[in-house]
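Batch 3, record 17
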Amino acid sequence: MGQRVRSEQGKPSSPRSDYVIEATDIVKRFGHVQALSGASLQVRPGEVLALVGDNGAGKSTLTKIICGALTPDSGRLAFWGETTTVTSIRHAQELGVETVYQDLALAPDLSVAENMFLGREPLTRGIFAGWPPSLDRKKMRQAARQAIAAAGISTLNSVDRAVRDLSGGQRQAIAVARAVMWATTAILMDEPTAALGTKQTDIVYESIRSAAARGLAVVVISHDIPKMLSLADRIAVMRQGRTVSNLPARDLTLTDVVTLMLGGHARGEAA
Ligand SMILES: Nc1ncnc2c1ncn2[C@@H]1O[C@H](COP(=O)(O)OP(=O)(O)OP(=O)(O)O)[C@@H](O)[C@H]1O
Ligand SMILES: [Mg+2]
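Prediction for the assembled complex:
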């Protein structure tokens, strides 16, 4: 792997759409459970989209489909207007899409630095005609230190510590830092602050805004609706496997969002 690129590698030179990600009419069933029954989502570069909805509404399932962790039963997924079948998490990463999973997806027995590079470890050339290659641990540790400092994680004294020994909040902060470090087109964050204290939560919110300011599309799932109303540009509300609205945050109140979550209509919205 070369030096990490923060170019717009995922963006075609003449994109066919203003949207980085467009998911349309996504359907997903787990056995008898209809998790998604026609969910849609659109997000532009530089935009923070909050995805809200009650427990079980389908938020995590929709993001897992976008990031290649799950395959939809039907529906269309497009990146920059190009219809794409995302075949794996790795494939989504190649499109510049990074994800912070609700269950974090860190490897507990590996160190912080190793987790930051999980599956994308840089190699050094061996001494005999470049062979055998080995892990460039120095580069990994340096990059991990930088990313962690940039993410404002001040409570972690070493990137060599095993993730198993860290607090829930530290783990969550590391998962966020890893996504911010690799993303070049979009970041999907599934409840990224659930385990965090006030200070670290504010840092994550800042990193969300600064990722958007860099031109990334950010989709954040959260149950903190008042915060989403001030942080996000748009709010998409999911209910029972469907996206029931996607409106600018400035046009919505807390009551509107809760009403939409429960099956009503926002003020001024056509019935
Ligand atoms: N792997 C799975 N196997 C079976 N059912 C699942 C699976 N994953 C999700 N579901 C079901 O699909 C529905 C949507 O779940 P999902 O996790 O997407 O909801 P959510 O909106 O993220 O909820 P929460 O706010 O609680 O995280 C739920 O009824 C859930 O039980
Ligand atoms: Mg969820």
